Amino acid sequence: MKRMMLLAAVAGAVVVAGLNGCAKKSTERNGGGACRLALTGTAIGLYGNGSMASMSKTGTEALPENLEVGVHVVDLTNGETPSTAAIANRKHVSDGSGALVGADPDNPVILTTGYTYDVYAYAPHVAGVAPAASSSIPVTHGADVLWAKSSGEKPNAATHTVALTFERKAAQIAFRIVADEASQPDISGATLKVTGFCRDGILDLAAGKVIPGSVDNSVELTETESPVCFLPAEGPMELKVTVTVPSGPNAGTYTGVKREVFAPGKSTVVTVTVIDRNSALGLEAGVVPWENETGSVDVNN
């Protein structure tokens, strides 16, 4: 397996959490002053829903427009944890330029100067997640799961800016079907079906880790040349690949299993080569940014 370094796309954006000024009488908060929270967001390799061509792009991009982000602010000074945070799961929405805007302007995030905080964020936002459930935030197949944490934030001014860098917690895969150049079989109308994915899982906010559920073979990937996000398992996954050629001298059904460990942040392109009616159908996997990787597997009819 050949690996290349992760290509990180970073998009900076000022994210003001819908904060209003505070009345003078409320500026003292247990020995500290009220402080408005502002966030700047960066994103690693945001190529989640593009075409095959977009998967190979490099450079920086803003967060997708209308991306919904959940923000937890953990008050370490008062002994909070993600599961006990008073400021939890605050919804913010990307405006397309990378800025995140608080969804509830009447409920701004106010910190206290002199205190110490950890700030967590994840996407896509899930409504109704209480602090106690922060270790099991629901995530689903097909979602581009993002996670960020900034530790030890110590506000000391009227506005405190926190820089968040989002990491990818899903993996991505795409398939293309090609005819062998030597034997040049007729694969007109060939169709694809891939199973072996998990339908859902959970995100542990404190750990920044996705834990997939069990394999659900009713989840089928049938599109070619189109990347799809999925929840990677910790160990090897077994993806059953079925290619059907409907008619002609090479008509038939070709099946095989792609066994591989898929890691968060990697986007794998699997090339399926149809050789002829009774020969192996080759699968060759290459990874594009997010991160590049190669591999191969044979399947037979």
From TrEMBL:
Pfam families: Mfa_like_1. It comes from the Bacteria. InterPro entries: Mfa-like_1, Mfa-like_1_N. Gene3D superfamilies: 2.60.40.2630, Fimbrillin-like. This is Fimbrillin family protein. It comes from Rikenella microfusus.
